Model the fold of this input.
Amino acid sequence: MPRLHVNIDHVATLRQARRSQEPDPVTAAAICELAGADGITVHLREDRRHIQDRDVHILRKTVKTLLNLEMALTPEILEIALDVSPDQVCIVPEKRQELTTEGGLDVAGHSASLDDAIPRFKGAGIEVSLFVDPMPEPIELAAQLGADFVEIHTGSYANAPTGRARSAELDRLKTSAHYAESLGLRVNAGHGLDYRNILPVVQIPQVEELNIGYSILCRSIYVGLDQAVREMQDRILAAAPPEAEESPAVAQKKKGSRA
Done:
């Protein structure tokens, strides 16, 4: 069954709207973990529009599950990430004017920087994921550069109208996940996933981690953060295929993690 990593960026978005101390993403992370989240994801952006340096430093000390830091590959953020030492970094594209990450990383265009940064992270014991579109070229390059994971961008799937268009996007996700596994990469997925569209993605056997934030935090306005996380975990559990149907590589990774 894929693990649920809750992205708490928009708790900080609300805090920064008033430049206040509340709501505190550190407290939100603790609530998510108590509700059953398998990991916490935050994106430290260059413009610090939501998550702040203070947040990632405190989260590193308080998160009990797994801390995943999303980041653009800039010298400043690279050094902060190495200092904080999260369990995992996910390298993403970033534009100042965007509302949220709009697409996958241009792996070819950043290959020189990635070729320098990936060994530094791995040498520090930090797993490396690249956020990529469901296409063969960036996945192949991610493997060549030595990434541990690719996180497949599910935005086109989430935004597609139901029916044939969404089915086609789902097929792209499945094909990309299978291709990534064949190259020795582990597979995560995220962007735009919610309580209605999550089920088919859970059933992709190669997917190990799901990064979901906005829909959970929207739901939490009505039912509370604890309940919103539990409801998402229930959806994942209900849709997860039997362990026997998992990809052999994923099953072996899980077996190793339990040893």
